[in-house]
Amino acid sequence: MGEEDYYLELCERPVQFEKANPVNCVFFDEANKQVFAVRSGGATGVVVKGPDDRNPISFRMDDKGEVKCIKFSLENKILAVQRTSKTVDFCNFIPDNSQLEYTQECKTKNANILGFCWTSSTEIVFITDQGIEFYQVLPEKRTLKLLKSHNINVNWYMYCPESAVILLSTTVLENVLQPFYFRAGTMSKLPKFEIELPAVPKSTKLSLSERDIAMATIYGQLYVLFLRHHSRTSNSTGAEVVLYHLPREGACKKMHILKLNRTGKFALNVVDNLVVVHHQDTETSVIFDIKLRGEFDGTVTFHHPVLPARSIQPYQIPMAGPAAVTSQSPVPCKLYSSSWIVFQPDIIISASQGYLWNLQVKLEPIVKLLPDKGRLMDFLLQRKECKMVILSVCSQMLSESDRATLPVIATVFDKLNHEYKKYLDAEQSYTMAVEAGQGRSNPLLRRPVRTQAVLDQSDVYTHVLSAFVEKKEMPHKFVIAVLMEYIRSLNQFQIAVQHYLHELVIKTLVQHNLFYMLHQFLQYHVLSDSKPLACLLLSLESFYPPAHQLSLDMLKRLSTANDEIVEVLLSKHQVLAALRFIRGIGGHDNISARKFLDAAKQTEDNMLFYTIFRFFEQRNQRLRGSPNFTPGEHCEEHVAFFKQVFGDQALMRPTTF
């Protein structure tokens, strides 16, 4: 299998830590994404490494018994260590604060601490088998203050740091889940909900296992993912992942079911809003996208894997350190190993090898694996790093070898412009709100974020269309049809078409002598009026004489002032066209000769200069009876230039009657 076939990979630079062994215990903190390697209970050292900090934190602590759990508060300010089922020890890592340990016992009598979670740099939650206790840590006083507690029988718990929600498993079957939400010193109880367990024979003991539950944020919403090993409906085989949406307000609701069509050992990750399901038996993974259209049965949406199952891309463990000899080749890493532990959203840890990886999605291979361009676009537009891949898909569908049909091309353009329009509307609403002074009264007013899914006209023009029209082997009718399709799509979404796209159409039409088509496009306003377009038409006059009038009509429709039209033409070096226009409206007796001679000289076309010079000589003769320029016209340098190029004899002699 070539490298281009794997759509999942482990990150290039994993976090490396000392392998787990009888002396060295390894812990992972999901909130800070840190790995703790604790040697001999901390007596011979604790090393803390995270994905972002390349400088590990190292310290020692007294060996006061086996460490059950160890985590830093957010920003690494306070260390909490649980060694017994009744207490948690604390140590400040804040400069100028006492380094002495202090201890907090759980408040509930006869309760055992199952674990703890930091919800901020100074707030911590103890989860016991009899409930939950929310504390504020006061580091300078080396004490804790109980903010709130709640009594409930707890089997196990789960924490989602991104959304600050703790899930408690209650009841004998363990399948009633009670969520709590934490924010700025407050603890809120959310509505509890029940996970539907699969129907199995009565003899089997059934309960909800912590292993089969995960919590993750997908498309900005919090979901509880339940890996159900047997479907509730007897006719379907294989396991499935059930997604329960857990809103801030209102009840939790079953929304999606991901069909795995296989059984065995599974693990879940969430990467770039995709649910990744790893299957240990076949050593492959599949991905699901809940934004793609599935089969809706009135209450839930059923989804199938977006792509065929593939292994994670083979990974070589680099030989590191001074002992690494250049001749030593990297060691292949055992993928889908039974020693792998998976954490949300995208973390895979191999404690036996001493690595922490982030799982990543590769978009390029997906292009070949998803032949349906419409579905491919729906998929790509939701991904974080999608821009260059989408542009390459657009170029590819316009290439000779992979040419798509016009309806497919139209669909792709419409999907791009739908995203583009959404962004433009959001940007406009934001601007209007700011101008109306709502920014002060509404602190939630935020400028819309421009994601990579927003491909504007300059992106498509630069990376796709400008190269496409240059392709000699393409039938010109197809080229024009594609350009018009893109313009149609922009118009459909009421996006103002940039003049350079119209210019591209006109240049392509002229190149193939399709003047009748150009005339029709302008006549029926398929190409929108603009000054740059009018100038372009003027420059075509020598190939297509009616272009002159078409251009002037356009400038008039734009209600451009006459002197502005002249300025526009002169700036584009259309000196003769400017002169003709002035004559056409009868203003040629009052224009500045110097301005036109300047413009003619700038073109470095001596014959054009001769023609313009002769015109003004004739005007002078008609108006003043002499072809010579008056001193007030400041044309001395142009007269000198004319003599230098054409000689004195070329000057017009005064005509006497």
Automatic annotation (TrEMBL):
Keywords: Autophagy, Endosome, Lysosome, Membrane. It is found in: Late endosome membrane; Lysosome membrane. GO terms for biological process: autophagy; regulation of autophagy. Residues 383-631 form the Mic1 domain. InterPro entries: RMC1, RMC1_C, RMC1_N, WD40/YVTN_repeat-like_dom_sf, WD40_repeat_dom_sf. Component of the CCZ1-MON1 RAB7A guanine exchange factor (GEF). Acts as a positive regulator of CCZ1-MON1A/B function necessary for endosomal/autophagic flux and efficient RAB7A localization. Belongs to the RMC1 family. This is Regulator of MON1-CCZ1 complex.
